[in-house]
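WP5 quarterly update. Target: DUF7869 domain-containing protein. Source organism: Graphocephala atropunctata. Length: 162 aa.
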Amino acid sequence: MWSDRCVGQNNNWKMVALIQHLVVNNYFTTVEQKFMTTGHSFLPCDREFALIERKKKAAMVYVPHQWVEVIVNAATKFEVMLMATEDIKDLSIVERSLNKGDFRITQYVWLKIMHDDPTTLQARTSHNILQQWTSHCIAKKMKGRSKLNLPPVKVAQFPRLY
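Structure tokens (predicted):
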């Protein structure tokens, strides 16, 4: 997946926790996250946000539900999925289980976690496929355990964020 470099949204340990959760729970066998080069980023979603922004200028939005109409009317391809508070989960438990060590996510432009070894975060500092991966063990060392057990966790088991 391609992401912009926004630390608050994409380029952070919460995303690594989410990616690891998706791999461990067999949603994917491998997840790679690539970050756009600062100043050169233009993702397809940027164009779609511009369509919504254009519609927003003519709209009178007073309550959150009115955004549905603005978004749906911005382009025929837009679908809105309404979410309830219980749909938004807190992944802090997964994030706290990660060994962050001195690994600085923002120094890398390509991250990868694979099902074969979901406790290793692989990273590259460039988009060059010839560059060697840097490996970082994201499993916290636990006393008395020789092997990390990552039991599958159902999304419903995560606490609500709000």
